[in-house]
Design brief:
It is a single chain. This protein has about 500 residues and is of the alpha/beta class. The chain has helices spanning about 15-30, 50-65, 70-80, 90-100, 125-130, 155-165, 185-195, 195-200, 225-250, 260-270, 280-285, 415-425, 435-455, and strands spanning about 5-10, 40-45, 80-85, 110-115, 140-145, 175, 205-215, 285-290, 290-295, 295-300, 315-325, 335-340, 345-355, 375-380, 380-390, 400-405, 460-465. The chain has a nine-stranded mixed sheet with strand order 16-15-14-13-7-12-11-8-17. The chain starts with 6 loop residues before the first strand and ends in a 24-residue tail after the last strand.
Length: about 500
Amino acid sequence: MPACNCQFVIFGATGDLASKKLLPALYHLQCAGRMPEAMRIFAFGRRPWDDAAWQAFLRAELESHASGFHPEHFDAFCQHFQYVQGELHDPESYGKLSALLTREGAERPDDTTFYLAIRPGEFVPVVQQLSAAGFNRDSGSHRIVIEKPFGDDLESAIQLNEQLHRHFNEDQIYRIDHYLGKEIVQNLIVFRFANLPIESVWNRNYIDHVQITVAEDFGIENRAGYYDQAGALRDMLQNHLMQILTLVAMEPPPSLEADALRDEKVKVLRSIRPIPKTAIHAYAMRAQYGPGQINGKHVPGYQNEPGVEANSVTETYVAAKFYIDNWRWRGVPFYLRTGKRLAAKTSSVAIRFRHTPQQLFRETSIEHIEPNWILLSLQPESLKIEIYVKEPGLEMRIRPIQLNASYRRDGEKELDAYEALLLDVMQGDRALFIRFDEVEWAWRAVDPILKAWSRETDYISTYPAGSWGPEEASRIMDQEDQYWRSVF
């Protein structure tokens, strides 16, 4: 699909999200020659700037956050931009914006994408103002893009969706999860469905369990105001990890068309076995980082971070277990974990196969053979299959080797997730964006955990910063020989 001649409006253009993610991604598209020449970008912000002040800010941010800065590309990039001073709650600001978006001689604005790079609490007021200004007309021609979190729990997610749907149709709403824009995540679809030997063993007959890990070695940085209210379950597991789970577990879609792909993801989420209220601690555990060492430097515990409430029991680590009750996955546990101040920054999917059924080597020096693994690392990128071979020599001894199935060749540039997703927005491709029923069923899966933890306000386990989390996280695993895979 060719890129449309659309316009972009970035609300919150001077905020962290725009500075660190959106503006560098748009700039990289410009450098790659993927930005439509006639595209206009309006940077909406409160600061009393003219275009010269905006361009100075833009240059400083790109020099800090873009991967490579080239003055010749920057000059062309600036030609797309116009700065618009305004207030999010001011109707006159939207009238001024509407006039700017309507080209001379036109009766109404061209196709426009409104990127809400603002606090979630501002989503509904801005959408209401856009609707009052007439930007919700003509389904599909005007779009809004919103970032997670999509609500704080099931009830608030439903309420947010109802508010959005009062003004915009579902096909106008692009809910973004940048993990879905990562090439290695998209490569998971190809790895599964383009390779017959892989797909044929991708089921409960061969797979023992699946682990999905998103680990961060940094703390909450300057986000205490948000994070202390959200926690790791809301911030990461309910969205990023659950989305990865759906791609690992879904059935082959009939096509890569947006709704065909998302229909299969919803089927996975609807098949997740509800967690019994009386068994929450057997299915999930939480913890909070204490002081420790990260890269040889001492770091404080969570409760000593600036802005964190005294005696906070907000979790910075969560591990949870889910079962998908369908023909492919019945009885296979999916273990999900995420945390801050862990030993390394990594995102991975580790799939362990079952033990071989025959003890062929029991009369040799081989006492035990570990199961095989498929190791998909999202960060850093790699895709490996772990198998066993005989060691050279006279004795019957074996050792594991890894077959590297990574797809990136030397010199091939990694595409930033936001670059891919912004390009999809321009083209109107919704395949990698989240439909509301995905949001709803993901919340339904974790809602029992949230409700149980909301009643436990007196105590939370801790783990030292720089570790792989609390040792008791292994308690949710079904078998004694199952363990968290942290080494790839």
